[in-house]
Each structure stands twice: as structure tokens, then as C-alpha cells.
Fold:
Amino acid sequence: MSVSPVSTHIAADDVEKGGNDVEDVKGDGEAGVPEVAKVDEEKPLAPPSFPDGGRRAYMTTLGGVLVLFCTFGTSNTYASFQDEWQRNQLKDYTPSSIAWIGSAHLFILFIMGLPSGRLFDAGYFRYQLPIGSLLWCLGIFMLSLSTEYYQLFLSFSVCLGMALGLVFSPTLSCVASYFSPKKRTAFMGSVAAGAALGAVVFPIITNHVFPRRGFPFGIRILAYIHVALLLLANILMRPRNDIPPRKPPPALPLISSFLKQPATWCACLGCAFVMLGMFIPIFYVQVFVQDHGASPTVVTYALPILNAAACLSRVSIGVAADKFGNLTVAVPVTTLIGGMIFAMLGATSTGGAVAFCVVFGAASGAWVTIMAPSLISLSASVREFGVRAGLGFQFVALASLIGSPVAGAILGATPRTSSGEANYLGVCVFGGCATLVGAGLLAVARGCQVRAKGTQWV
Structure:
């Protein structure tokens, strides 16, 4: 799930025509050569140009891929953890109780989006990445030692959630700073695809190792991979030296003005309702196919198939969004997600399970890529980008916290079918309806923008 609040620092890069808000003050020197550059602190500065390539830009992009491969790739492997814990370490707990571990992880990730982005704006990326990497490695090794509920919660939810929240948005913003808007979408999509690629590889490892060598051994394999790749990422990634750090503008006045706009409420609530339902299949797909008697091969590869489809769509959806507008693309994508959650009820055969994973994975991957740009598309100024995305992510954080536990409670309260299988009807109705409500709210937000801008492509 590669979701990113966009930093206000990167938003400043998009000032039209690359103009710098700098007032030349002539002194006693040669005519036309300024001795003092007076900066208007109320206006964002744009760097003189974008490299749009070069060794440092490509090395930073590769480093970003590695960061998201390890971190968000592991987060998107949660379904295999949920399955393992339900059947072994936490078999005495309800699915709803176990789901709190994953949902709290997402909550901490999203709630940190705004402060971590503002730290990036202030020029602290060179500290955020190594500290976040160390915290991530500590958390993953502690996870391998965890056997009790509170231990799993502290290591996975708190430690890994904080580490990911510290590096996720700044990593994407650092990569974005090297590319102009015309090329940025492709490279951002490539970095986001690293998360989906990790979520293809890691479930294959865990689903093969957990039954044979146990949970601790499987997690330690992931931990050693993470240590090596995150070390390499810290060597590769470098923030641009020609962009001076600056104090971000105050957020509260902007937030207050945004909340007076109906489009803001519709977009933020729309994103929240979509995320309320979308994570349910991601958390439960492996348990679902196993409960319905799918072959061991399908159980093992259901999550990798879902994330492989997401990987492809994350790269390609940006092209459509650039052409037709983020909100215009978001409405049909989220509608498809809602429909596929209902369709999950019929994915009880091998072919049905594979088809569901492919279509749902592609749709969810597309949404994760365009969610933050959809929030940002409401902006009247580039200075609003980071705050708008951060505000929306506070709504998303709350939805991510409660969605999967509520689904687990519904699953536990629903009587089993006549054949003794778990009954997912209530879960799918809850998730599908929530997502479709979100799609409707996004459609209203789009309508507001169409009227405000006088164009269909918003």
C-alpha cells in the first residue's frame, strides 16, 4: 500500500515556470548583479531546475524502492501474519482482537504523515532515514522474539508503525525533488511499486518458512534481508543540496480554512470510507481462501498474486490520472473496489480466488497511488499541498484503525454456514458498502471541483 502525503517542500518545486520569489536588491556592485537576495518568507522558493535524471537522481530512486520494498512490503504482508497468529501464537484470541495489531500499525503510520513531512520540509531527511531504518530493524528483530499479544503489538504496531511513519512520506518526497512534474509520476510510481514487490516476495517466504521452521525463524530471515537492503538504501539516498531547508508555514490556519469547504469534507471522508473497507480483503484474503478449502498452492500465493497485480497498476495508473484528473479516475477505481469486496463472497474456487486477487489487487494498488494526489487536487496553491494531504491522512488513520477490527467482530458474531465454514457475508457487506459510500463522496468532491474549475478533468 504505497500512500504518501506530499511534502510542502516538494510542492514548492512546482511553482509555475520555475520562478523564484526573490527580490534583487542592488548595492554598490556592478549593475544588474545583486549583492543581497531578500527572500519573501511567505512565498515558497523553487529550485533553479530539476535534474530529471543523472546518477544521484537514479541512485536516490533506487534507494527509495529499497526502503518501500522492506517497510511497506512487510506491512502489506500482514495477511500472512494474521493467518499465522490466528492458528498458533494467538489462537485463543478472536480475529477482531488480532486485527487490532495490523490496524494500529496503519493508524500510527498515517497519523505520522503530517509531522514527518514537515520534518522533511525543515531539512531533517538525512536524520529521518537512518533513525527510521534503525527503528525498523529493531522492531523486526523484536517481532521475531514476540510470543504474547502485547509483545506483538509493541513490536509490529508501535515500533514498526513509527519507523514506517518516519520514513515513508519523506522517502517519496526526496525522490520527487529530483524530477519535474512531467516525469515525476512515473518515478514516484516506480518507487511505490517497490512496496508491492516486497509484498509479493515476503509472503512467499513467510508462507513457506512459517509451517516448516516456525514464526521466529521466518521473521529473522526477513530481518536480515531488511538490514542489508536498508543499509544500501541509506548509502544510495541523498537529499538535494541545492534546496535550502526552511520552516514550513503554519498548518492550523490552512486547516481551518480547508474545513470550511464542502469539497474538503467530501474528499477526506471519501478517502476514509474507502480505506475503511479496502483493507478488509488485504487483511483477510489468506484466511478466507483457506477457510473455503482452496488448494495449498492458492493459499500460499493468494497474497503475492494480489500484490503483483497492485504492483503493475501502481506504475500505470499515473498516466491515466495525469490525462483525465485524479478525482475523475478515483471515482471508478473506488467503485470497482467496492464491487470486488462484494464479489469476494463468490471467490471460493481456485479460479475464482485467483481472479479476485488479480482484479482487487489491481484496483487497490491504483487507489493507493492516486489517493494523496486526489486530496491535493483540491489545492488552490502549491503551498497547500502538504497540509491538504496531511489533513486527509488524519481521517484515513482513524478509518484504518477501526476497519479491520470491526470486520473481525462481525466475522466472529456471524454464525457459520451449514457446511461449517466461516461466514463472510456480513464482513463483505460492511466493507463493500463503506467503500461505495466513499466512492460517492469522492464523486461529490469531483463535482465541486468541476464547478469551481470549469473543466471535467479534475
